[in-house]
C-alpha cells in the first residue's frame, strides 16, 4: 500500500513563527501536492512539485513556500505564520502514469496559529 | 482556480436510504475520481473513472463518468452510519508529469440511525 505520511497531526504555532510541514511518501511518486482545506471552500492547491527541486505555484501560494530536495519528501513552509493560515493541510502524491491517475493523501495536519 | 461544482454542501439521510451526488464542470476532464474523507483524516479514493460513459461499482458505491466528460455522479445504496463524511469529486484533464487534479468543494453526508 502507498503510504503518505505527514509529520504532525496537530500543530499550534504563534503568529510570526516560521512553520515547517513535512510530507513523505514511500512509493517513488514524481508528483507531490500541498492543499489547504477550509469549511465551505474545499481543497485549494497551494504548491505542487513534479520532480526534485522543481516547484509550481498552485491557486493560493501567497504566504507559503515549498522545498523538494529529495523525491520522497515535500515540505511546506510558512515563512511568518498568520492567523488566517489556521487550517487543515493535506499532502498528496501522484505517480506519473499516462493511463491512470490516483492521488494518495496523507492524514492531514491541523494547524492553529494563535 | 477552477473548481468542480458539487451541491448541496450538506445532505442528511436516513440509514438504509440511497443517496446520489452529482459533480459538474464547465470544461471536460479525462479522469474523474471520487474521494471520501472521514472526520480528522485525509481523503481516501473510492472510485476512479477513466472513460466517458464508464459505470463502475465498489460494493454499495456506483459511479459514472458522464458521456459529455463534464460530469460524474456517485450513488451510495442502503446507507449505513459509517458512510458519514465528506465526499469530494476530482477531475483531471491529462495524466503524467505536471498534472493537477481539480476538486469540488465536497458534500458533507450525515446519516441518521
Describe this structure in words.
The complex is a heterodimer of chains A (114) and B (113). In chain A, 0% of the residues lie in helices and 53% in strands. With 114 residues, chain A is mainly β. In chain A, the strands form two sheets. In chain A, strands 2, 4, 5, 6, 9, 10 and 11 form a seven-stranded mixed beta sheet that branches. In chain A, strands 1-3-8-7 form a four-stranded antiparallel beta sheet, with no helix packed on it. Chain A is globular, with a radius of gyration of 13 Å. The model of chain B has no long low-confidence stretch (mean pLDDT 91). By secondary structure, chain B is mainly beta. Chain B is globular and about 40 Å long. Helices cover 0% and strands 49% of the residues of chain B. In chain B, the strands form two sheets. In chain B, strands 1, 3, 4, 8, 9 and 10 form a six-stranded mixed beta sheet that branches. A four-stranded antiparallel beta sheet of chain B has the order 2-7-6-5, with no helix packed on it. The relative contact order of chain B is 0.34. The termini of chain B are far apart. The interface between A and B is medium-sized, with 37 and 28 residues.
